[in-house]
UniProtKB/TrEMBL annotation:
Species whose genome carries this gene: Sistotremastrum suecicum HHB10207 ss-3
Ranges of residues in domain FHA: 18-85
Protein name: non-specific serine/threonine protein kinase
Keyword terms of this UniProt record: ATP-binding, Kinase, Nucleotide-binding, Serine/threonine-protein kinase, Transferase
One Pfam family linked to the record: Pkinase
Length: 345
């Protein structure tokens, strides 16, 4: 629920789980066009009438979890907890205060927080909320953005530049009495080093890699718009399809990202909508290719190791699954996967 001077606005789930209140007596109003929520100010008619936009991103691992985000759409920027953000999108947490400079300020309150599942049977009920963790200049929050088979992604704060980033945390020694497998450690380090060497607007950028005993923390640029699959299926478009122009724009970006990878002789080998992230919510987004866990260098060489997600795998990769002696090349397989993503749009 959003509260403003004209009274409360009740919205459907998950929007009703957040409340924004004014911190002063200045006049303001909240407008809700379509699926985005814009915050406008009457006090500065000479400025841009829209200052910020609220959106909600769904978690890939749990469709019931939603993450409120705030995107600056103004000319002069806005303040989040006293720090200026400009032309970027951030996640909102409980108690965050954002302010329109020389105007009003607002406080975010999460009215309904989903219960945290137990990690073990004999954990207390409700489970104890994990504490923040500091690794170098980064403060890893307990706010989990998603969980996969081998890693979890948490929200983190870059304390030097005060910006939100994503932290992909992997445990290469899942059991305390078990030594970390060297093969698994080399695989993770190979992925991290590969990602650090990549720099492209449509590739998820690795900022830093930190090692801590059996844990590896990979800090990446934060994408607050969720993944492409969720955007297609929950975006409100007819028949779960994007508009033609938007589909072309997203496909063009994926082609540019793949072209950059293939120029470096790198194949992704698991390109799918779930591994394409939106940098910010809203139509015609900038998208980035993520999750390089199965990526391979020297991509021009044929490989016997068939990997990927079956609905998006090329025919020769499918044959390699059935016949261990069958080889295929990763770069043409990426192009096939791109075509499957385009068809889904």
């Amino acid at each position: 629920m959003f509260l403003c001077d004209q009274g409360p606005y009740r919205l459907n789930h998950p929007l009703q789980n957040i409340r924004v209140t004014r911190s002063n007596n200045s006049i303001s109003r909240v407008v809700f066009p379509n699926q985005s929520q814009y915050l406008a100010s009457h006090q500065a008619p000479a400025r841009c009438s829209s200052h910020a936009r609220f959106d909600f991103s769904l978690s890939v691992s749990d469709s019931a979890a939603a993450f409120p985000s705030l995107q600056d759409v103004s000319t002069n920027g806005i303040l989040l907890n006293g720090h200026k953000i400009r032309k970027s999108s951030v996640f909102l947490l409980e108690g965050d205060v954002f302010e329109i400079p020389a105007s009003q300020s607002f406080t975010c309150h999460i009215l309904k927080v989903p219960l945290r599942p137990k990690a073990h049977l004999f954990d207390p009920t409700p489970p104890v909320k994990p504490a923040h963790k500091v690794v170098g200049k980064y403060k890893i929050q307990s706010h989990c953005l998603g969980t996969g088979s081998f890693a979890s992604v948490f929200l983190a704060i870059d304390s030097e530049n005060y910006r939100q980033v994503a932290c992909k945390t992997l445990n290469i020694r899942p059991h305390p009495k078990q030594s970390a497998p060297e093969a698994e450690k080399k695989k993770v380090l190979k992925e991290a080093n590969l990602l650090k060497s990549l720099c492209h607007p449509n590739i998820n950028k690795v900022l830093e890699v930190a090692y801590e005993d059996s844990w590896i923390h990979i800090f990446l640029d934060l994408a607050t718009g969720g993944d492409l699959f969720t955007y297609i299926t929950t975006g409100g478009h007819k028949d779960f399809r994007l508009l033609e122009g938007e589909a072309k724009w997203i496909t063009y970006q994926l082609m540019k990202g793949l072209d950059y990878l293939h120029d470096l002789n790198v194949s992704h080998r698991d390109l799918k909508p779930e591994n394409v992230l939106l940098c910010a919510p809203g139509p015609y987004p900038r998208v980035i290719i993520a999750d390089f866990g199965l990526a391979r260098q020297k991509a021009w060489q044929a490989t016997l190791n068939a990997v990927g997600t079956v609905p998006y795998m090329s025919p020769e990769a499918i044959l390699a699954l059935a016949n261990p002696k069958s080889k295929y090349v990763g770069m043409p397989a990426d192009c096939w996967s791109l075509g499957c993503c385009k068809h889904l749009c």
